[in-house]
Amino acid sequence: MKPAPFKYHDPRSVKDLVGLLASLENAKLLAGGQSLGPMLNFRYLMPDHLIDLNRIAELAYIRPGADTLEIGAMTRQRTLEHSQEVQRTCPVLVEALHSVGHIATRNRGTIGGSLSHLDPAAELPGVCALHDAMLTVAGPNGTRSIAMAEWGVSFMTPNLEPNEVLTGVTLKAWREPHGYAFVELARRQGDFAMAGVGCLVALDGNSKVRRIALSLIGVTTTPVRLSAAEKLLTGSDLAGEAIKAAAAEIGALEALDDAHATGTYRKRLAGVMLGRAIGRAAERARMQGSRQ
Amino acid sequence: MSDRRTIEVTVNGVRHTREVETRLTLGDFLRHELGLTGTHIGCEHGVCGACTIHLDGAAARSCILFAVQAHGCEITTVEGLAKSDGTLHAVQQAFRDHHGLQCGFCTPGMQMTITAFLAENSSPSEKEVREAISGNLCRCTGYQGIVAAALDAAQKLRGA
């Protein structure tokens, strides 16, 4: 038996789940289990209680609104990947999902699990940052909303109390025609990204940037929006010089430094990924424009 | 003081009811409780893909799933691929024809991954096959034969 003993709970509703969380000490939530499973097998984590969210049907949904895309925390990554609604409203999410683990892990892995585990190299938090997501958290005092910008507290630590649970996320879709891209570099397909950049861009009639969003994963402790670079690029024609100046903004970030890649290398890679992401997104934006 | 639950699962079409410890992984359940040792347990932390099975038709890693989570589910293991008369599944036959296995340790996981993949994508490119098996490690490094087998099986399944 690999994991240390625990008491297993499988509530059927968010109400029951919140009740369990309030009453149990040293409990862990099991979503898709693609990160928690290994941690339990290693006995890196030894919770007294394991609360399985997989039988809470109300936590799995995809609801497109006028300008939003609401996703339940227990929606599987593979379901999102195949969803026409997601492809229509937030196609960058589908593109990013191709780099999330492998088919077998995406069949189990959930968006809420990714956001709560908050691995610095995880793609889905990067996409949520890109789309100015709002997260909904349930706890003993009801529910509260948290902006993605405030979600990451520190390394693998979301803005979540021990008696709270992430129930859903609302992505703000872009109404205007835009290009998108999610580009990363990992040593193997599906492995942790050493650096990855998401980009949304809308161009005006003169091919100048009307609006741009850039997010970065794998470099800093939590995913970040590259606001300074966004500001620099707004109004620009995305020429080589403009992108170079935007990439230079990455230099100011404090980067993760570990056995897989040094901080300096990660930042250098991030600059390259930034150029590729903007290039691909801009190309798609131009194609959109020429179709209209 | 172990935490136990009674579960009911259908494995390769056969219904089983067992009382299990809740921390028992599905992979260990299949091997130790049901004696279905075709499912290989490699890394036990979701990296190597050797333990891949189908859970309600979708490929999943049985080493990081608990048996209790499979309660009420349909599972297919590598033992469920061949017909009862011993005729190999097209993917298995292609592995044999294209030297898609050497030591055989990764083979069950590879075949479960590829059968699930081909059910979704019946005419994949070589690149798509390589992406599909990216979560399955072959330490004999016999990927050429595995990819050739997957492509050949796809063609045969399309023709069938």
Structural class estimated from helices and strands of chain A? alpha+beta
The rough form of chain A would be described as globular
CATH class of the largest domain in chain B: Alpha Beta
Question: Could you list the spans of chain A in which at least 5 consecutive residues all have pLDDT below 50?
Answer: none
Tell me the distance between the termini of chain A.
Answer: 60 Å
Q: What's the structural domain tally of chain B?
A: 2
Superfamily at the CATH H level of the largest domain in chain B? Answer: Beta-grasp domain
Could you please describe the fold and organization of this structure?
The complex is a heterodimer of chains A (292) and B (160). Chain A has three domains: 7-52, Uridine Diphospho-n-acetylenolpyruvylglucosamine Reductase, domain 2, CATH 3.30.43; 60-172, 2-Layer Sandwich (Uridine Diphospho-n-acetylenolpyruvylglucosamine Reductase, domain 3); 179-286, Enolase-like, domain 1 (2-Layer Sandwich), CATH 3.30.390. Chain A has helices at residues 14-23, 36-41, 77-82, 84-89, 91-97, 103-108, 111-117, 123-130, 227-233, 240-248, 263-291; strands at residues 7-9, 27-30, 49-52, 62-64, 68-72, 134-139, 142-147, 152-154, 157-158, 165-172, 179-186, 193-203, 209-217, 224-225. By secondary structure, chain A is α+β, with helices and mostly antiparallel strands. In chain A, α9 runs antiparallel to α10 (240-248) and α10 (240-248) packs antiparallel against α11. Chain A starts with 6 loop residues before the first strand and ends with a helix. The model of chain A has no long low-confidence stretch (mean pLDDT 96). Chain A contains eleven helices and 14 strands. Chain B has two domains: 4-80, Ubiquitin-like (UB roll) (Roll), CATH 3.10.20; 90-159, [2Fe-2S]-binding domain (DNA polymerase, domain 1), CATH 1.10.150. Chain B has five helices and five strands; from the N terminus they run ββαβββαααα. Chain B has a five-stranded mixed sheet, with helices on both faces. In chain B, α2 (90-97) crosses α5. Chain B starts with a strand and ends with a helix. Chain A binds chain B through residues 1-8, 10, 33-34, 37-38, 40-42, 50, 52, 54, 78, 98, 101-105, 107-108, 188-190, and chain B through 1-3, 5, 21-25, 28, 44-47, 49, 52, 55, 58-61, 63-66, 68-69, 113, 116-117, 130-132, 134-136.
